[in-house]
Amino acid sequence: MNNSAIKIDNVSKTYGSLCALKGLSFLVPKATCFGLLGPNGAGKTTMMKILYGKAFRDSHPGGSISIYGYDPKKNELEIKYISGIVPQENNLDEELNVVQNLYIYAKFYGLKRKLVQERIEYLLDFMELSNKKKVPIKELSGGMKRRLIIARALINNPRILILDEPTTGLDPQVRHLIWDKLRMLKKEGVTILLTTHYMEEAHQLCDNLIIMHLGEKILEGSPDILIRNNIENYVLEIYDKENGNIGIGKNDVRKEVAANRLLFYSDTFSFLEEISGLCKPGEYYLRQSNLEDVFLKNTGRNLNE
Predict the structure, then answer these.
(1) Of 104, 157, 239, 272, whose CA is between 20 and 30 Å from 64?
(2) Is the torsion defined by CA of 114, 116, 121, 122 positive or negative?
(3) Dist CA 125 CA 190 (whole Å)
């Protein structure tokens, strides 16, 4: 039995002289969360738009897309019928209230009124918005709007949920609530495709992910494996790069410069602990390496890299 929900093979996309995607390939198993990470301009949103038919891949030999057996170029409506989309920007109808937004969206799927009523009640409860049914969109907080957009994306009981930076700008409480709901959806069999700039979010949710840069895939794997295979175990951040001579002579230490900070990476905690002893309290931070370290090492620390 084919366990793949999404199969991307050698997909490219150009806009004039700009190559947004360069031979991108990846596989998303059913009922998993797959992440697309990368700096702005890496091609994440372009890939998402191609999946749900808002853009089309370049026509060239070997490039193909399968979403539960459907090709976006040929089966755009079929894919939309089994998908839920959460775009980067909030696009609710602000002239309507919460329930009205959901009812209008449900009409696109031709759902019977009784089923729609049951589905709306369930989703509002699921996203903890039941007490906001009649509230105008203009009166909702940013977190409530994002939860409503996710509820709207689930109105058709989709097999695939596509989330483009779903928690940007939200406070930690709302972010964790959304994470919990997404985990529940995955357990129910929903396949989730996620783009995010929050490395913690990717680590919390993604079973596997790719890191993209300039339209290309540069790393792929589970968050833990990517950390284990692509970065040293520990990092010491020193907040004043005037301490540049600290750590010289430690062969097991790799140094990076980032703005006014120094970062020392090593698999040996005692080496970094010894270096930190040369700094004053409050001038350093000694910690385990994380997914953000992997991301920055491979995509660059400067905005123009």
Answers:
(1) 157
(2) positive
(3) 18
Domain ranges of the chain: 4-227, 232-288
3-state helix, strand, coil in the chain (%, to 5): 35, 25, 40
**Strands annotated E in 132-250:** 160-164, 191-195, 208-213, 216-221, 234-238
Q: Indicate the CATH number for domain 232-288.
A: 3.30.70
pTM of the model: 0.92
Q: Give 9-60 pLDDT, tens digit per residue.
A: 999 999 999 999 999 999 999 999 999 999 998 999 999 999 988 899 998 7
Closest CA to 174 of 147, 197, 193: 147
For 122, other C-beta atoms within 10 Å of its C-beta total 15
| Backbone CA torsion sign across 212, 218, 220, 222 | negative
Distance CA(251)–CA(108), nearest Å, equals: 62
Regions of the chain short of the pLDDT cut 50? 1, 305
DSSP letter for each residue of the chain? ---EEEEEEEEEEEETTEEEEEEEEEEEETT-EEEEE-STTSSHHHHHHHHTTSS-----TT-EEEETTB-TTT-HHHHHHTEEEE-SS----TTSBHHHHHHHHHHTTT--HHHHHHHHHHHHHHTT-GGGTT-BGGGS-HHHHHHHHHHHHTTT--SEEEEESTTTT--HHHHHHHHHHHHHHHHTT-EEEEE-S-HHHHHHH-SEEEEEETTEEEEEE-HHHHHHHHS-SEEEEES-GGGTTTTTT-TT-EEEEETTEEEEEES-HHHHHHHHTTS-TTSEEEEE--HHHHHHHHH-SSTT-
Q: What does the alpha-carbon distance between residue 43 and residue 216 come to, in Å, rounded to a whole number? A: 8
pLDDT in tens, 239-277: 987 766 676 667 789 999 888 899 999 999 999 999 899
